[in-house]
Amino acid sequence: MIELSGISKTYAKSAVKAVDGLSVTVKDGEIFGFLGPNGAGKTTTIKALTGVLKADEGAVRIDGLDLAADPIAAKRRIGYVTDNPELFARLRAAEYLNFVADVYGVGDAERRERTARYASLFGIKDALAASIGSFSHGMKQKLLVTASLLHDPSNWILDEPMVGLDPKSAFNLKELMRERAAAGKTVFFSTHVMEVAEKLCDRLAIINRGKIVFMGTLAELKAQRGADGSLEKLFLELVDDGEGAQA
Amino acid sequence: MRVFLSLTGLYLKSFYNLPGKASKGTKFDPKAALKALGIGLLIVLVVGQMGFLFGASNLATYEALAPLGLQGIVLLNVAVIATILTLAIGFLTALSTYFMNDMELQFLAMPIKPRQLFAAKFAAIYVSEAAISVFFVATALVIFGVKEAPHPLFYVWGLLAALLLPLPALAVSYLIQIPLMGFARFLKNKQAILIIGGVIGLVLAVGFNIYYQSILGRLQDPAWIAAHMAGPEALLTKLGQAYPPAYLTWRALSSPAGWDAALSLLGLAAVCLAGPALAILGLSGRYAKSLVGFNESHIKKLGAGADAFLRARLVRRPAFLSLVARELRMMNREPMYMLNGPFTIVIGPLIIGIMLVVQRDAFLNDPDMAGVLAMLRGGAGAVVAALSGVFLGSATSITCTSLSRDAKALPYLKSLPISAGRYMLAKLVHGLVFAALGSAMGVGLVAYAVRLSFIDGAAALGASLAMSALLNLGGLWLDTANPRLRWDNPIAAMKQNPNAVIAIFGAMGLAGGGGYLAFATGMGTGAFALWFGLVPAAAFVALLLPYPRYAARRLAAMEI
């Protein structure tokens, strides 16, 4: 379970709050979509949630563990797919997976079995001896997804995971998200692709200018807006409302 | 023309990492000013050293030839050496910048003519070539000018010749490289180029060092200089007479006031400008074509062996060892990091080793050195050995750039369940491994050169290890306090990182200051062991204990 309570963050070189008093709870077994335009605060929220950034105010709890008070134990329960797959270009894919497995304390049998499973699913098993620097953007993304699942985390956090993936891999990733949610694990992901959010999410939140402008199910969003449009249309209306209010 | 100028400007900014124009209302940044001052001091130091080297060799040659009335040959030699120097440096620069990054592939998709693209790159590289040439020729002009008081036009022709001489050298570099890139596919890879360029650079540096060391002791012998360096039968003189630009330069500078000089310079301009003109007119298309497919990667497939591979390679290790292994791999597999980091403990002893091998007998048998040798073997040798070990052990820039080099991966690393202290201490262990190797190399080299006793050698090694460890930890504190977190090119994280410059100057200052105190106070073995061994070891422990908490606080505060 993921709990964000009153998270605020202002970057040192900015006078504007990137995230402002944000509170979200994602229950076990839930797929939660996090939507918003560029610069709305999605990545800042995810960075605060994964311990990459220290929030100025508020608290993050992962499976009931306070991220600030017990960061190592809390982070062990997270599998994180960053939005920037340009990592460790000089390592070979297998070395990278071994490193991640060592850091999470995954046993020999589990790391081999999970690597084989996910690397096969995403079609990169054959390339595990190669240097990450020689991988395409999509292959790096698939490697990151594989690495994030090596310790079978109870909370899976993905920042723009569909970027660079081919249709088959995107489909496999969505299936994996459903599978994990069905197994009682939490899936939290950000995306710009409305169709993905519409079809996949149990609940979603829309963030604009650092504040949540909507949180709930798609049906609740439609009921609230009194419209029967697509998520894309509702999203654009909400974001435009926010811009109008600012102006 | 506008496209050419715009591209040249872009290349110049990229090559030399020039800052952009400050916008109106930009506040004074003391950190940036301090950095600019540090870089300025470094440039003065390097230029001063090179100026001394060039000036000393030109002066020695002049003084050897003047009594024979052959001093004019100095000018011929200057033109030949300026050409050789710019050819060597230009070839390596052209190779390392042949393909900068994917930005150049985007240029190919823009309405830019191949001639504009190639000419812009040529012009950008020419700037550094011209600076080197002008600097080298200027040292000769000053010496010749002071000694001979020539006509003022001598300086004008000299400056123009210095600007023209690198042009054919750079054109020749491209005349070799462009066709080579066309058929040698393995060369179309940045890493292969870096390694090949590094090896060529190393061979040139070692070759120059052997040459320089071998003539160093003979510069006082005018007859030898006349016969081997500047006499009518010397190789340099023959090369000068056979190479038209050198010959024309010599003619223009020998009697600068006459029409003959002006005509020679016109001839020089025509010959030198023909090189780039031919290269740009004839090879631009092939150059642009050769950029296509650069850095293409070919992934080797595991096929049926994939499962066996996973069984063999995916093996559990303690997390800390895994962190240290990552540090080693990430640094030593990036040529830019490896050549400017750990490799310094190989190249340093190699250069000093050549000096020792070439001059060891002369040094040991020189009667003037008897007193120095007695002092070195009587205890001071341990100090010198320890300090050379300290210098090598702290010269790798591993710890003082460690966080900066990790900047791109830092957000991901911070999300992993590892404490900041352990993560940073893995970097320290990486630095200490090479500090131990550097110490062993530095101490071993001096111990061999002056035939130190075992006790003195062991004491020197202990002291070197303690001081190197302290300096490496100091470097880690420095990069934790002030890392360079935003960069596009690995050079910026390593070579252009102010922390590396501060750490090297700090190590030099400590080694120099410590050495001075040791000699000034006539330190005995006991005092030496205390001040150079135990005190740095204690300081290391004192700095190490609070470090993990400091690192945790700093990393938590970093907004990346």
List keywords for this structure.
heterodimer, A: 247 residues, alpha/beta, Rossmann fold, 2 domains, six-stranded mixed beta sheet, four-stranded antiparallel beta sheet, 40% helix, globular, B: 560 residues, mainly alpha, 25 helices
How is this structure best described in words?
The complex is a heterodimer of chains A (247) and B (560). Chain A is of the alpha/beta class. Chain A is built from nine helices and ten strands. Chain A has two domains: 1-77 and 155-163 and 183-247, P-loop containing nucleotide triphosphate hydrolases (Rossmann fold), CATH 3.40.50; 84-152, no CATH class. In chain A, the strands form two sheets. Chain A has a six-stranded mixed β-sheet, sandwiched between helices. A four-stranded antiparallel β-sheet of chain A has the order 2-1-4-5. In chain A, helix 4 (108-121) packs antiparallel against helix 5 (137-148). The radius of gyration of chain A is 18 Å and the shape is globular. The N and C termini of chain A lie far apart (37 Å). Chain B is mostly helical and 560 residues long. Chain B folds into two domains: 72-290, no CATH class; 319-557, no CATH class. Chain B has helices at 2-16, 30-65, 73-96, 103-108, 114-148, 153-164, 166-183, 190-216, 222-230, 235-242, 244-254, 259-291, 306-313, 319-332, 335-340, 344-365, 370-393, 402-405, 410-415, 420-450, 454-481, 490-494, 498-520, 525-544, 547-557. Chain B is globular. At the A-B interface, helix 2, helix 3 and helix 4 of A face helix 13, helix 14 and helix 19 of B.
